[in-house]
Amino acid sequence: MAAALAGCDASGHRPGTAPRPSPAEAAPSPAAPAAPTMAPGPGGLAPVFTRAAGDGSTGAKTVALTFDADMTADQGPRAAGGERFDNPALIDALRTLKVPSTVFMTGRWAEEYPAQAKAIGTDPLFEVANHSYSHYAFSSPCYGLPQIAAEDMLADVRRAFAAIEKAGARNVVPYFRFPGGCYDDAALRAVAQAEVTAVQWDVVSGDAFATDADAVAEQVLDGVRPGSLAVLHCTRSAAPVTEEAVRRIVPELRRRGYRFVKVSDLMRQSAAAGAEGVSGGPGPDSS
Known about the structure:
Blueprint: E1 48-49, E2 62-69, H1 76-80, H2 88-97, E3 101-105, H3 107-112, H4 114-121, E4 126-130, H5 153-166, E5 172-176, H6 185-192, E6 197-199, E7 203-204, H7 213-223, E8 228-233, H8 242-255, E9 259-260, H9 263-272
Parallel strand pairs: 1-6, 2-3, 2-8, 2-9, 3-4, 4-5, 5-6, 7-8
Pfam families: Polysacc_deac_1 (PF01522)
Region (Disordered): 1-52
Domain NodB homology: 61-261
């Protein structure tokens, strides 16, 4: 998409009433095992994970909600002018509802909000993954995003990891989400050198620029299947109804018997089932 999406905040826990999560959803120990990755693909391409394998027949009704913290490299003046690339209420909601989540963070966002990046990245409820430094497109066309040169892709990914870690995030996993979900073989070959697993999704929330929280919630609820991976955003300016939608999505999915997990847990579930997950993706989203 033309405008970058961004933002998660690390504000305190807001009191409120929420459905009780299952014990398995409790925040993991800081000493949790290393995040799993997938084996490289043919021809030196980075592997792509979209959802956990399996149909839920074994009782593994899990789903991963992921949130893209987007900010492009040239949006500093907009942030300086007062535009907010964060969403404190959304992170509050995830904490209140006790929803383990994976935040795909751009390096530029981590530089803009280092305290928030640190708070999210040291909270055991969350894990932080890489969403590029610049939020420029790794293939084109891609929602009007500026395109990064092929020879700069690897450096961009590494620069994002460096910015995230400099901010103080510690729960950082070796996963990468392409801006807009746009990629080709050249992009997969470039990021493979960073030893990352590319992570896509099978459920598009439609929260980018949405104004109807009920419609976003319905789209997610209609799309989720056992092992699903949903893409959402956390920004006040470009995804203003996500928090409200999440407050509807979470209790309803729990009522249906789903358990919320991080991407690393979903990938571990696939490995335990003897399959590394479903590769490929449903096509780009305005992430």
